[in-house]
Design a protein that fits this description.
Largest sheet: 8 strands, mixed
Number of strands: 16
Shape: elongated
Strand content: 5-15%
Strand order of the largest sheet: 3-2-1-4-7-8-9-10
Distance between the termini: 60 Å
CATH superfamily of the largest domain: NAD(P)-binding Rossmann-like Domain
Length: about 450
């Protein structure tokens, strides 16, 4: 099938590359010339494991190319998948500026086409958006009728950054929300080679499945984080508690890893948008509200623990190392990364911050800027003469930091392990003053 992908961010480029790897002919559309040029050179403009390799294979074979011309891409395609960003607006609702603009451009192209095409929304949005916003825009700009002259649907993505290629090619489930059987059938065609359950629903239900899935996972993380804060006080270990819970197949151990909270491009905006919508329809969710509130507090739990560990209880003039900046390992994404509130709070208290991350430093500079903030590529170098260290993101590379390095490099070997990445016994045996989230004394 000939496919146009509108928007080449994490979702769009992964979607395009993976469909091309299945034998489809894909045209990726973006408004940024530099991104288009990189893609056409076989270089991924974003960091995502396995994506560079796919582009290097697919671009020379002419299975995937990129363009600035949305109209040409739509005219040449049977399936148009819109993947532009829908960032949060005032932390409560989605900003549909890019989605509306992309939809208008697609509609104008449909106006000049005599062929039946299907438009698929993959951008995350509130339930009802496809039918109440996208459909009217397409019909108005194209002068055509949905369901008769063109198809329309919503196909949510469930991709985890860092393993998005693997997730796309081997999904737990595929959800197709179409306005009619013809739209659903057309969308289903591109998933014929996928060995996954397919659920066919209406667009609003598909939108609800996406946003509630992320909200539930966020809620599960916030729950275990709150339990971790309790276990610290009563003398038990959250890892053992979570393991005992996870052995129950009704609960499972997925997303029961306590830490410093969730961030990224999906969880924060999705759960906030759903909570906002719950209030709009007159059923405000106390559960969603509490999940959001708990997560906002959780990053600063590391700061609280560190303050209690410092002899003078002061951050002023202290050299504090932050291990990890990205919101999770294997990505350079800094959106809603928990490192941001931690670093900003410490800077406000006149600490001197040395921050390190394998790949996210350049992106972090767009979110963090202060004269007392220093970015260091080598984590071992950052630890030299440090008064304390907080592990924020559990990059595998940090496993090279042995207990001996902490003990001998740091002025005061205080380690706040925000992800329970290191072995407490080994750290303490070497003289490191170790604190782990959810670890009772």
């Amino acid at each position: 099938m000939k496919i146009a992908i509108i928007g080449t961010g994490y979702v769009g480029l992964v979607t395009g590359a993976c469909f091309a790897s299945k034998g489809h002919d894909v045209i990726c559309v973006d408004v940024i010339e530099e991104k288009v040029s990189k893609i056409n050179e076989g270089i991924a403009p974003i960091y995502e494991e396995g994506l560079d390799e796919l582009l290097k294979e697919l671009v020379p074979k002419k299975k995937l190319k990129a363009t600035l011309n949305a109209k040409d891409a739509v005219m040449l395609s049977e399936l148009i998948i819109i993947c532009v960003g829908t960032p949060s607006k005032d932390e409560a609702i989605f900003d549909y500026t890019y989605l509306e603009e992309a939809t208008k451009n697609v509609g104008l192209a449909l106006k000049e086409s005599d062929d039946y095409k299907v438009v698929v929304i993959k951008s995350t949005c509130s339930p009802g958006t496809t039918l109440n916003l996208i459909k009217p825009i397409l019909e108005e700009t194209s002068g055509k009728e949905s369901g008769e002259d063109f198809g329309l649907g919503f196909n949510p993505e469930f991709l985890r950054e860092g393993v998005a290629v693997e997730d796309f090619l081997n999904p737990d489930r595929i959800v197709i929300g179409g306005i009619d059987e013809r739209s659903i059938k057309s969308i289903r065609t591109v998933f014929e080679d996928f060995d996954s359950p397919i659920l066919e629903v209406d667009p609003t239900t598909a939108e609800m499945i996406k946003i509630t899935s992320n909200s539930f996972l966020a809620m599960k993380i916030s729950f275990i984080n709150e339990i971790a804060n309790i276990t610290e006080k009563i003398g038990s270990d959250i890892q053992d508690v979570a393991k005992g819970m996870g052995l129950d197949h009704r609960i499972s151990d997925k997303f029961l890893r306590a830490g410093l909270g969730w961030g990224g491009s999906c969880f924060p905006k999705d759960i906030s948008a759903l909570y906002h919508q719950s209030k709009e329809v007159g059923v405000p969710s106390k559960l969603l509200e509490s999940t959001i509130a708990a997560n906002k507090k959780q990053p600063l739990r590391a700061v609280e623990i560190l303050k209690s560990a410092l002899e003078d209880r002061s951050f002023e003039g202290k050299k504090i190392v932050i291990l990890g900046l990205a919101f999770k390992p294997d990505t350079d994404d800094m959106r809603d990364a928990v490192s941001i509130p931690i670093i900003n709070h410490l800077l406000d208290k006149d600490a001197i911050i040395y921050a390190t991350d394998p790949i996210a430093i350049e992106n972090a500079k767009g979110y963090l800027d202060h004269s007392n903030l220093h970015f260091v590529k080598d984590p071992a170098e950052a630890l030299e003469d440090a008064d304390a260290c907080i592990l924020v993101t559990e990059w595998k590379k940090f496993a090279l930091l042995t207990p001996k390095i902490f003990a001998e490099s740091m002025k005061t070997p205080i380690l706040i392990d925000g992800r329970r990445f290191f072995d407490p016994a080994k750290m303490r045996a070497e003289g490191v003053i170790y604190y782990g989230i959810g670890l009772g004394k």
